[in-house]
Amino acid sequence: MPKSRIRKKADFTPPPAARQSTTINLSNRSWVAPVMLALFLIGLAWIVVFYVTEGSLPIDAFGNWNIVVGFGFIAAGFGVSTQWK
Fold first, then answer.
1. CA-to-CA separations, 29 to 13, 48, 73, 85, in angstroms, rounded
2. SS3 string of 18-83?
3. In whole angstroms, how far apart are CA 84 and each of 2, 4, 36, 66, 80?
4. Is the pTM of this model over 0.90?
5. Mean pLDDT by 10 residues, the chain (85 residues)
């Protein structure tokens, strides 16, 4: 049976020439933390005011939906928090 040819290959192949790295310009997100905390506090204050005034404030016409509005502010705060880097 004939023998196959043995290829001679170097054990180490150096990587190709390094490319110039590109700088990533991240936008300034200093607004995220204050807005997030403000939404959390507004939502908390909305719910606390609703319970303390026994439903007559912040908006009497909303009735028990004031709780949903308060939690909506808190949920918006969590939504803004996803932008934090």
1. 43, 30, 20, 8
2. CCCCCCCCCCCCCCHHHHHHHHHHHHHHHHHHHHHCCCCCCCHHHCCHHHHHHHHHHHHHHHHHCC
3. 67, 61, 9, 28, 8
4. no
5. 74 75 68 94 96 87 92 96 87
